[in-house]
Amino acid sequence: MTLTSGRYISHEYDRMIVRFSMHDGTREVPCAISTSAMDYLERGPQVRPEQREAQFTRLRDRIEARAASKYRATEFEGTPPGIVLRGIDFRP
């Protein structure tokens, strides 16, 4: 099944990640992206913590496309299993 957009969950400053979800039918799939990966995608200066949700929204299509690719490849991590995106996931 194809993943669809879920929800923005939170920016976890101490872990330097943004948590979000995607959906496989009715199943919610937990996902996260490192803040350094988002900064890499924008190729600009690091944004402030209070700007992370807006940054995620700007990059959402690219982030979700890569999360869907990792999902199809069954590249899960953690407990419960989810998708984790890092800068290396966006490099050619």
Question: What's the overall average pLDDT, rounded?
Answer: 95
Number of DSSP helical runs: 2
- Termini distance? 26 Å
Strand content: 25-35%
- Structural class designation: alpha+beta
How would you describe the shape? globular
Order of helices and strands: EEEHHE
Kindly state the percentage of residues in helix. Answer: 25-40%
Could you name the ranges where pLDDT drops below 50 across 5 or more consecutive residues? none
Q: Describe the main β-sheet briefly.
A: 4 strands, mixed
Strand order, main sheet: write it out: 1-2-3-4
Cα Rg:
12 Å
How many strands?
A: 4
Descriptive notes:
The chain is α+β, with helices and mostly antiparallel strands. It has two helices and four strands; from the N terminus they run βββααβ. It has helices at residues 35-42, 52-72, and strands spanning 3-12, 17-24, 27-34, 83-85. The chain has a four-stranded mixed β-sheet with strand order 1-2-3-4. 22% of the residues are buried. The mean pLDDT is 95.
Which short descriptors sum up this protein?
92 residues; alpha+beta; 4-stranded mixed sheet; 2 helices; 4 strands; globular
Chain-wise SSE layout:
Layout: E1 3-12, E2 17-24, E3 27-34, H1 35-42, H2 52-72, E4 83-85
Parallel strand pairs: 3-4
Antiparallel strand pairs: 1-2, 2-3
Helix pairs in contact: 1-2
